[in-house]
Write a sequence for this structure.
């Protein structure tokens, strides 16, 4: 049994930092054991659904934000626990929409924590977070895994609503990952941009005009074995892959979110098939 405590949604905000409007503070916890779902906790607007998956697939949990999106001052947390020798796939129901924040609002805070036991296998297949202009997002992903656990995870950010002619000109993007193996920090990564995002995004040493950014990780003792496959799958125009210390890292960025998303799904399909022996078809909700 994993003994990690159920964490608070995020750190408590001081009265001065809270929005003057009503905001949400949702949290959910899902705990998988060898026999399937072991424990569950959910506080609106965070919800969890458990649709039947295809034969041979990992047990599936789908996360839902019933508020339809998040804005300044909203807080959402998810705690995922996977016991030893247990498998799980976690997928959000849809893209997370981060709406414009009022000038005096604190950021939208999204915190995900994962605890993976010995010999466990887990997929975290996050759909894109769409940042509306002048939104303020602070998102963290904390992963504590046993030495022989295996994790395939990706997250995606889309800057603005291109289909609506909207650019993400200004706001806050704080997006960080922390992965620990047997208690040792093996990877720390953070993107932090605050203020005039459009200026940075246009520069070659910034986003180079990209409006969609993907980070994908396969963390496992055999991660280096799949570097050639990853490099074959990632279009050179969108990014590349590297490996170190039992980590395979894929980065992609591009001006067309649909193309970037399609490429990310193709990489994920092939990697999950290669590393976990699963079907190359992702859960159907990933294609909605």
């Amino acid at each position: 049994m994993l003994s990690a405590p159920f964490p608070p949604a995020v750190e408590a905000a001081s009265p001065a930092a809270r929005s003057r409007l009503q905001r949400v503070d949702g949290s959910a916890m899902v705990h998988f054991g060898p026999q399937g779902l072991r424990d569950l906790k959910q506080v609106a607007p965070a919800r969890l659904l458990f649709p039947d998956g295809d034969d041979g697939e990992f047990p599936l949990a789908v996360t839902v934000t019933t508020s339809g999106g998040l804005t300044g001052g909203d807080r959402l947390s998810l705690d995922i626990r996977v016991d030893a020798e247990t498998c799980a796939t976690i997928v959000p129901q849809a893209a997370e929409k981060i709406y414009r924040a009022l000038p005096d609002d604190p950021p939208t805070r999204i915190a995900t924590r994962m605890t993976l036991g010995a010999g466990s296998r887990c997929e975290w297949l996050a759909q894109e977070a769409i940042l509306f202009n002048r939104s303020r997002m602070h998102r963290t992903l904390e992963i504590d895994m046993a030495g022989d656990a295996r994790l395939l995870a990706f997250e995606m950010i889309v800057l603005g609503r291109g289909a609506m002619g909207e650019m993400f000109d200004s706001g806050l993007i704080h997006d960080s990952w922390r992965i620990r193996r047997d208690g040792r920090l093996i990877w720390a990564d953070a993107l932090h941009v605050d203020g005039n995002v459009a200026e940075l995004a246009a520069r070659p040493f910034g986003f180079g005009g990209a409006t969609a950014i993907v980070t994908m990780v396969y963390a496992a003792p055999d991660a280096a074995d799949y570097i050639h496959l990853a490099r074959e799958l990632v279009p050179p125009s969108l990014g590349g892959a590297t490996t170190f210390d039992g980590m395979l890292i894929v980065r992609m960025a591009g001006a067309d979110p649909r193309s970037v998303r399609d490429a990310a799904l193709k990489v994920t399909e092939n990697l999950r098939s290669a590393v976990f022996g699963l079907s190359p078809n992702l859960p159907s909700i990933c294609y909605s």
Observations:
- Confidence is low (pLDDT under 50) at residues 1-16.
- The CA atoms of residues 54 and 283 lie 8 Å apart.
